[in-house]
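Q: My labmate handed me this sequence with no annotations at all. I'd like to see what the chain might look like in three dimensions before we decide whether it's worth expressing. Could you predict it?
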Amino acid sequence: MSKLKLIAAGTALLILCTGCGAAKDPDNLTSGMEAVQNLEYNDALDYFKDALSDGEDERQVCRGYGLAYMGLSRYEDAITYFEKALQLSNGTPGNIDYDINYYLATAYFRNNQSEDAISTYDAILALRPKEKEAYYLRGCVKLYSGNFEGAKQDFDNTIALDKDDYNRLIQIYNVLTDNGYKDIGREYLQQAITENEKSMDNYDIGRIYYYLEDYENAREYLLKVKISSDYEAALYLGRTYEALGDYNYASSIYNDYTLIDQSKAEIYNQLGLCRIQMGEYEQALSSFKEGMSIEGNEIMQSLKFNEIVAYEYMEDFKTAAALMGDYLKSYPDDESAQREYKFLKTR
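A: Here is what I predict for the chain of 347 residues:
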């Protein structure tokens, strides 16, 4: 039986900037942006068409079109509208111009136009030389394009601009690991421990040890954090016990946290993953559904994918296939899901 890989909510390649919202009270534009947030991209396109007809903010509408087309993996169309939105600038770069350029760079990258993406980040950095987001994202594009030295320089610049940003440090580690440079990523993490351990809190030390795969030290430091009030510490402590093979204790950490706080989808996702490992498929399914019920959560893709995994382990292939069809409407770029869908339709 084919088995899908479970997805733990993690760091994506590109962290998109979301700085600019819609203009005030334009009904179609607002509805279109809400549709984009709900992954209802075709509905969004209809709203944006009506917004243009009604004379709503053309620049914001073009930005919305770009986001909707990106969601549909129609990157050339997305590029067209992002470029048009930039052409509608008043000539003085503002936050919306940087916002659109970040999205444009992402569309270029996903359309296999890495050089154009890099040039876009170059333009941002020419005007904002301390924009660490642009350094990081440009480094990601360079790395995926095979330019390790250029990527490393950008990552070095990113870290130098904020040495205490351990979230970004871990993102850099993950990107390097995904591209075969795990040892370099570990060097970054070890350097942070060596240079900053006295000033770091127990949570940051613990999670860096977690990524260094020193799970005993990770557990030691994370146990010093009050996990009943710190969900990220609970998350990492649970993952540490998972790495140590104790899924039962890890699941108890996650489950105990949900008794206090029912608003963290990532906790439910990890709880479901633990239950999969323990063969408790129906309970796992329940955990994923609990996570999906949390409005506005940022790991919906992981939860929906893992829901399908649970049904597949339960050998309910009909339901899994139906859900996979819906999943691919929202996430058409997921190649592994496309392959699995072909398998499920034969069951």
